[in-house]
Design goal:
This protein has one domain (3-98). It has 99 residues and is mainly α. The longest helix has 18 residues, at 81-98. The relative contact order is 0.18. It has helices at residues 3-9, 11-15, 17-21, 28-37, 42-46, 48-61, 65-72, 81-98. The protein is globular and about 35 Å long. It comes from Streptomyces carminius.
Length: 99
C-alpha cells in the first residue's frame, strides 16, 4: 500500500500518533489511555469506534507484522502489531468500563 493510500485509509491511526510518540507520559499505556480519555465523553461515540475500526482493518489487511510495518511506517512510524493490538484492547476496555 502506498503512503497516500495509508493516509487516506487510516487517518485516525495517523492522528493518534501524538499519544503514542509523546514523552509526556511514563508509559505507552498511559499515553494511549490519555488519548482515549481526551475524547471522553462526547468523542467516544464518534471517534473511538472509528479508530478501533481502522486498527482492526489494518490488522486484518496486514496479518504479517513485516508487511504491516513496511506499509504503515512511512506514514505512521510507530505502527506495529503489538501497539495496534494494545490500542484496540484499550478502546474496548474504555467502552466497557466507561459506557
Amino acid at each position: 500500500m502506498s503512503s497516500w493510500e495509508v493516509e487516506v485509509k487510516f487517518p485516525r491511526i495517523k492522528g493518534f500518533s501524538w499519544w503514542v510518540e509523546s514523552d509526556e507520559y511514563e508509559t505507552l499505556e498511559e499515553g494511549l489511555r490519555a488519548g482515549m480519555e481526551s475524547e471522553h465523553p462526547g468523542g467516544c461515540r464518534q471517534e473511538l469506534p472509528l479508530l478501533a475500526a481502522e486498527v482492526q482493518e489494518a490488522l486484518l489487511l496486514f496479518p504479517d507484522p513485516t508487511e504491516l510495518e513496511s506499509s504503515l511506517r512511512p506514514v505512521v512510524p510507530w505502527a506495529s502489531v503489538s501497539i495496534l493490538r494494545q490500542i484496540l484492547q484499550l478502546v474496548n476496555r474504555h467502552a466497557s468500563e466507561q459506557h
